[in-house]
Amino acid sequence: MERYLLVIVLGTVGGLLAQRFNVPGGAVVGAMLFSGMTVLFLPKGIFLPSSVRTGIQIILGITLGVSVDRSLLTLGVKIMPMAILSTIVLLTVAVCMAFIANKIGLVDFGTALFGFSPGGMTGMAILAQSENHNGSVVAFFHLVRIFTLFLVIPLLVKAVVYLQHKGIL
């Protein structure tokens, strides 16, 4: 029981610190890093029972559900075609990348597909784990993606806005 408490406390500290210092991915990334590092130093690691994992999934689902507002009803209809096209393109790339990762022996196809697929890190990692794939590898794929995007996207936006302002784009 003390091991679970230690992981919860250090995960919470990591999440709060990451959020406080504006780390990309915020509380989720900080909690994952701190709890992951803690588990690495525990002699036997930690295994969460399926009932605990299910409870966490429900809490995450509720968190996402309550973020919906009425503006999504009108905006959602307008952006639906682009959202579908984007999903098809991203999934096509994800399947190709997963196939390559599996063929060169990095990870099994399912883990790779969950890792390369578009989606949030926590959701995809938990979904992968619930489908008997390696959730920690999936989370790592997404962590690398998120950190990279948090560094690159602001620079790209600034560059495009600058080029538009200059009349180049």
Task: Summarize the SSE layout with pairings.
Layout: H1 2-20, H2 26-41, H3 50-65, H4 71-103, H5 109-116, H6 121-130, H7 135-165
Helix pairs in contact: 1-2, 4-5, 5-6, 5-7, 6-7
Number of E strands: 0
The rough form would be described as globular
Give the N-to-C terminal Cα separation: 59 Å
Instruction: Kindly name the structural category.
Output: mainly alpha
What portion of residues belong to β-strands? under 5%
Q: Describe the largest sheet.
A: none
How many helices? The count is 7
* Strand/helix succession: HHHHHHH
Q: List low-confidence stretches.
A: none
Our Rg estimate from Cα atoms comes to: 19 Å
Mean pLDDT: 88
Description:
With 169 residues, the protein is mostly helical. The chain has a domain at 79-165. Helices cover 79% and strands 0% of the residues. The protein has seven helices and no strands. The mean pLDDT is 88.
Note the main attributes of this structure:
169 residues, mainly alpha, 79% helix, globular
Summarize the structure.
By secondary structure, the chain is mainly α.
